[in-house]
Amino acid sequence: MGNLYGLIGCPVEHSMSPAIHNDAFKEKNMEHHYHAFHVEPEDLKESVKALKLLEVKGFNVTIPHKISIIPFLDELHETAKIAGAVNTVVNDNGRLIGHNTDGNGYVESLKEMVNKPVSDHKILIIGAGGAARGIFLALTHQGCRDIDISNRTISKAEELIQECPFTNNSNALTIQEAEDVIENYDIIIQTTAVGLHPHIDQKPLSLKNAKKTAIVSDIIYNPIYTALLKEAEELGLTVHTGVGMFVHQAALAFKIWTKQAPSIEKMTKIVYNQLG
Ligand code: ATR
Question: Which end of the chain is least crowded, N or C, by CB within 10 Å?
Fold first, then answer.
């Protein structure tokens, strides 16, 4: 008999996670099922308890529970400790262990885009929230030492840089300062909410002066082509959509749960077919 897996968050109604995980289970001839559970913040504690009691073998965690779930878990894997947030939980015989596959998922997807080590690139991260933190730390673990962080609230970028032991070369910049030196970067990573509903037509900065060889990433995957990525495409820059990170974080979670690697191509195709 198959096991139950799932997702908790709110909203989860438009999540692509059930489609890609259920397809991967089918592909691997597993009878498991993945279900999206809408969980309001005030119900988080009871919901986590219920998932444990019902022997749900693993679940993903999305907005707004990635940090607030931590007190309700039994253990944190190194990835979750580093990120300070959880996106994947394993139920190990009644012990809930929190992992984070977001940062490494991003790095895996970025590796598909570059033809030399990611650490050979000068990188700009726009944003200094939870998502930026996970990506920043995952990149530094890959050996990247040349990463600047630009944020609307510059003190948050400064705090993030101070937290990381490997970033002597890093600068905290305002968004305007980053735009003024945009030509310095090989990879530009957009992690803010700008480009998401209701900011769908907005972009944090202009790419007009970016290097022609620059890779521009946006971690938003719905819409797939944000205003920033549309500008990147018009300028002939290399576009790296948020679908890559989404699919790779899911594949890493799938591997943690089942010890098997799903098809990245198949997952990617499902997301593009639904949202593209
Ligand atoms: P997440 O976990 O998705 O990163 P978060 O921790 O709330 O979410 O961080 C949101 C990020 O988007 C922050 O960098 C935030 O900038 P501030 O630190 O200045 O708040 C950024 N952000 C959100 N809305 C923004 C906007 N309208 N303009 C610029 N930056 C914005």
Answer: N
